[in-house]
Design brief:
Elements: H1 2-8, H2 13-34, H3 40-46, H4 51-75, H5 81-99, H6 105-133, H7 139-146, H8 148-167, H9 172-191, H10 209-218, H11 220-237, H12 243-251, H13 258-284, H14 286-305, H15 312-338, H16 346-371, E1 373-375, E2 378-381, H17 383-400
Antiparallel strand pairs: 1-2
Helix pairs in contact: 1-13, 2-6, 2-8, 2-9, 4-6, 4-16, 5-6, 5-9, 6-16, 7-13, 7-15, 8-9, 8-13, 11-16, 11-17, 13-14, 13-15, 14-15, 14-17
C-alpha cells in the first residue's frame, strides 16, 4: 500500500488523466497484437495452417506497422499529437473490425496488414506524448503506468477474449476489441487537450519532412538506440508467438487454461510495473534497472523453452517470471530511449523506433517459424533453439546499452506540470541552481537522491 500511495502522489490530476487515457490506448492496440498468440492452436486448426503460416500472420502485422511507421515518422512532429493519436486510433479500429469479419487465411492476413499499419504506430505516439509531458526524473514511473496497458490486456482482455473464442468463434474477440476501441476513441477526443508544444520554433524554411527524418535516422546516438530496440525484440518475439502452442502441444497444458497464464502474468506485472520497476528506474537509473532485469530474464527464457510435461503451477511460475522480467526491462529501456532524442524531434524518433521495433518483432517471429517444426495439432520441434537465440539477443542488449547516451538538450516544462508537481514528486525534479538571492532549500539527507540523466 505504501508503494501505491507513493506512485499516486508522483503526478498531478491532469497528468494522471493523460496517463490513464494513454494506458487505454495501449490496452487496445496491444491486446490486438497479443491476442493472436493464445489463439494460435485454434487458428491453426480452424484455418488448417502450419506453424510457419501462423508465423506469417504475426509477421504481416509487424511488417505493415514497420512500413507505415517509416512514413509516419516523417510527419509525426508536424501535427498536434492529439490529432495524430485520434487518426491512428480510428484506422486501427477499422482494421480490427475487419479481422472479425473474415474467415479465410489470406483475407485475415490482409486485415492484419490494415490493423498493423495504424496500430503499430500508436505506441510511438503514446511514448512521444509521455516524453513530452513528463519530466525525465519521473518518466520511469510514468512508463510503468502506461505500460500497464499490456498488463491490463493480459488480465482483462486476453482471458475475456479467449472465453469469447471458446464459446463462439475465433473472430469474436476482434469484434469485441473493435467496440472497445470505439469507446476509447471517444474518451480520447473528449478528455485530452491539444498538444502542440513540440511545434514551437518551427519555421517555413525548415527541411522537408523526409530530410528531417534522415537527420533523425542517422544520428549516431539514435542508431545505437535502434540497434538496442532490435535486439530486445529478438529476445522476446522469437519466444512469445509460439509459447501458447508449445505449452499446449508439448507441455500438455489444457487449451482452456491458457487464460490462467495471462491472468497470473498480467496481475504480477500490474503490481511490479508501476510500483516496482518504474520507481526503481527513476531512483537508481533507467540503465541500471534495465541491465538487472535483462540479465535475470535469461533464466525464465531458458526454462520456458525447455519445459517438459509439468504441472500447471510450475508452468504458471515460469511464465509469470518471464513476463515480470520482460515488463521490467521494457519499462526501463523505454524511459531511457525517450531521453536519447531532443524534444522537438521526439515524435519522429519514437515513430521510427516503433517502426524498427515492429519490423524486428516480425523478423523475430519469422526466424522462430523457420526454426520450429510441427503444428496443425502436432508437437512443435526446435523450440529450445529459439530459446538460445533469445538469450543471445539479450546478451547483445547488455553490450549496446552501455554506450547509450542521453540528449544534452534539457526537456521543457510540460503544460501538465504548470499546475505544480505534487509534494512527494518534488525530490524527483532536477535540482535548479540557486541564485545568490534565492533561499536555498534544505537537503533531506535521509533520502537517496534519484538518478539523474547523466547516471543513465
Amino acid at each position: 500500500m505504501a508503494g501505491l500511495r507513493l506512485t499516486s502522489n508522483v503526478f498531478n490530476r491532469r497528468e494522471w488523466l493523460l496517463l490513464l487515457v494513454l494506458t487505454a490506448v495501449q490496452f487496445c492496440h496491444i491486446l490486438d497484437f497479443v491476442l493472436m498468440m493464445p489463439l494460435a492452436p485454434l487458428l491453426m486448426r480452424s484455418l488448417h495452417i502450419s506453424a510457419r503460416e501462423f508465423g506469417l500472420l504475426v509477421s504481416a502485422y509487424t511488417f505493415a506497422a514497420a512500413a507505415s511507421g517509416l512514413v509516419a515518422a516523417a510527419f509525426m512532429d508536424r501535427y498536434d499529437r492529439k490529432r495524430m493519436l485520434l487518426f491512428l486510433l480510428a484506422g486501427f479500429g477499422v482494421g480490427t473490425l475487419l479481422c472479425g469479419l473474415v474467415d479465410e487465411f489470406w483475407m485475415l492476413m490482409a486485415a492484419r496488414v490494415v490493423a498493423g499499419s495504424f496500430g503499430g504506430v500508436l505506441a510511438g505516439v503514446v511514448f512521444a506524448v509521455v516524453g513530452d509531458q513528463i519530466r525525465p526524473e519521473r518518466r520511469g514511473t510514468a512508463m510503468g503506468v502506461v505500460m500497464g496497458g499490456f498488463s491490463a490486456a493480459s488480465v482483462l482482455g486476453l482471458p475475456f477474449g479467449l472465453a469469447l473464442a471458446e464459446r463462439g468463434a475465433w473472430e469474436t474477440p476482434f469484434l469485441f476489441l473493435a467496440a472497445v476501441t470505439a469507446v476509447v476513441f471517444v474518451i480520447t477526443a473528449v478528455a485530452l487537450p491539444s498538444m502542440r508544444g513540440h511545434l514551437t520554433g518551427r519555421r517555413s524554411d525548415d527541411p522537408s519532412p523526409f530530410a528531417q527524418l534522415w537527420q533523425v535516422a542517422r544520428e549516431p546516438r539514435h542508431v545505437r538506440a535502434y540497434l538496442l530496440t532490435t535486439a530486445i525484440m529478438f529476445s522476446a518475439f522469437t519466444v512469445v508467438p509460439f509459447l501458447s502452442a508449445y505449452l499446449v502441444e508439448n507441455v500438455g497444458m489444457p487449451e482452456t487454461q491458457l487464460d490462467l497464464m495471462y491472468l497470473a502474468g498480467g496481475l504480477a506485472t500490474i503490481v511490479t510495473g508501476p510500483m516496482l520497476w518504474g520507481p526503481l528506474a527513476d531512483r537508481f537509473g533507467h540503465k541500471r534497472v534495465f541491465v538487472l532485469t535483462a540479465a535475470l530474464s535469461t533464466l525464465p527464457i531458458i526454462a520456458v523453452t525447455h519445459l517438459p510435461r509439468v504441472s500447471l503451477p510450475v508452468i504458471l511460475v515460469v511464465t509469470t517470471l518471464m513476463m515480470v522480467m520482460a515488463s521490467g526491462r521494457m519499462i526501463s529501456v523505454t524511459a531511457l530511449i525517450t531521453g536519447v532524442v531532443e524534444p522537438r524531434r521526439r515524435g519522429s524518433f519514437m515513430s521510427l523506433n516503433s517502426s524498427i521495433q515492429q519490423g524486428a518483432a516480425g523478423a523475430a517471429a519469422f526466424v522462430a517459424g523457420m526454426l520450429i517444426g510441427g503444428g496443425e495439432g502436432e508437437a512443435l520441434t526446435g523450440y529450445p533453439r529459439v530459446g538460445y537465440v533469445a538469450v543471445a539477443a539479450t546478451l547483445v542488449t547488455l553490450l549496446l546499452v552501455r554506450g547509450l547516451r542521453q540528449a544534452r538538450v534539457p526537456d521543457a516544462h510540460s503544460p501538465f506540470e504548470a499546475a505544480g508537481a505534487p509534494p512527494l514528486a518534488e525530490p524527483m525534479e532536477s535540482p535548479q541552481p540557486a541564485s545568490d538571492d534565492a533561499p536555498r532549500r534544505p537537503v533531506d539527507r535521509r533520502r537517496r537522491p534519484h538518478a539523474t540523466a547523466a547516471e543513465d
